[in-house]
Amino acid sequence: MKYLAISLILFFSLTVTAFSVFATPSKRYDANTQTCRVLNSGPLEWETRSWGKGGKTFKQFCKNCHSRDNNQGGRFLWEESKTSTGWNNFFARQTAQCAKDGEWDKLTTDQLLLVNDYLYRWSSTSLDRNDSR
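Structure (tokenized):
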């Protein structure tokens, strides 16, 4: 009887934990293209992960200037530097110095969208199931 009770508690704990894994945002509205981007299925499900095009582009292009102890003068940034809404505003307003200096012009529109999708999906609030949209 004792083992049954422990098993049931363990089962319910794992079930509750499993639901929190699905807390990442499922879609994102992009103000620049005025489109809704579905992040949890289809090609964007793969491409917005760290091994997809969005994550790789962020690491290869952005982290050159925005890593710790960089000599480029860029402020250190990582996925959780901003909230999901903060990353959307960051890309929509394009007020970052690198956007003003033309660094973003080196990326295609699709690459910028994928970086925004990646950062939106893995932002500081993305795993909060009460806040993710």
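The chain is about 45% helix and 5% strand. The beta strands are 27-30, 35-38.
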